[in-house]
Amino acid sequence: MSRGASSLVGIRDAVTARRASAEHLTAATLARATGLNDALNAFVEIHEEEAIRQARAADARAALGGKGTGASGRLAGVPLALKDNICVAWGRTTCASRMLEDYRSPYHATVVQRLLDAGAVIVGKTNLDQFGMGSSTEHSVFGPTRNPWDPTRTPGGSSGGSAAAVAARIVPAALGSDTGGSIRQPASHCGVVGLKPTYGRVSRYGLVAYASSLDQIGPLATNVRDCAEILSVIAGHDANDATSLRAPVEDFAAGIDAPIEGLTLGVPRQARSESNHPAVTGALAHAEEVFRAHGARVIEVDLPHAAHAIAAYYVIATAEASSNLARFDGVRYGRRAALGSGEGLGALYERSRAEGLGEEVKRRIMLGTFVLSSGYYDAYYLTAQRARRLIRNDYDRAFEQGCRALLMPASPGPAFTLGEKLADPMTMYLEDVYTVGVNLAGLPALTVPAGFAEIPAASGRGASRLPVGIQLIGPALSEGTLLRIGRQFERATAWHEQVPSLIAE
Question: Model's pTM, two decimal places?
């Protein structure tokens, strides 16, 4: 895909008006995906034949004036990518794990069917941390994904493959999943826009579960408007998902350019941490100036229990992961190890899981099993749930002060070097310090590009120019407001128009 065709809306309008061929655009996208994948490792599968078939169908509908069974045309001919924990009825759904290395889903996830019904073209599946458990896309059986801004650095995680594919302008947008920041943190590290919707706003049917009370599917895109277009397609109640909300779905792109004059934004005191990289501190301060210049009121608020969010999250998330991944035992689902003569069922479970699951996944399962065990359930799991309630109450009180959104960093620093944090899991977990509270509270949040950090190269020659992002957090079901605020920031700054030199054409 050329840089000139990087907008979802631009592609859709061109295909619909027959100024461009979906088949031609898809072929160019496939060539770009293949050409850059050795450098980035963003894709785990590229679906060439299926994508061309979908593109030809989009061209046929355009020739008929957009008519066709179930085709809304809102994403007509737009090439998109999916994180490989979202089920599709062709190819594999591996979750970047040996446990599911040969799994082929018999059905489409609800979000996939809605994308197809809107005319989108699914070009492939993107890399991730195994089962979504990680913050760097290094915990993958396919190897790490590399950041397009500096291939020696991580794109963030766990939706790092989707973020890298969008940042490299391979696709204009992609879907990821966000359990504790897995859309928003890689969006920040890769200089793209990422939206984590309200819990239940988007169906989780067909998403391989990590932590069921925290997981949410959402879009990553090159700009805010494109995120709004995708959310308008994938949001809405789904009878197949018991946690799906029955809230009406608005056209999130319709009022996106409305002014934000008079809106109150809150900056949590905890967001001004001395642990932030100077570029993050500068981006937050600059964002405040931009919003004030657009007529918004910016006040300081307090989230007094924010310090407990990481601990609460890694108790609740691992407990749910322990339960959800129990099904992968080599009998009902997943890789089955070979047994020696006389070995029984216990050996099958042990060996299959040892072979099929990575070290980080095993660590989280063991943590989760421990906090759910007899004698520790009250001390850890129930205490974490109480902390979760307090964290949600903190957000509620901030919004009761009249704040339409809260403004804070998406990550404490820019992308870190591959391998830098693998030996110390706690430093990796602290990457999520600004994001996990949103998932615990079930709220929507939007990350937008907000500046760059200049990092000296390890060799002493040259420097890496790495993106940093800010995060907007709103009350439940306030995605429309967040997108409008993000759009005004985007129009005033144009950070989202910057392109990595690795892929500039």
Answer: 0.96
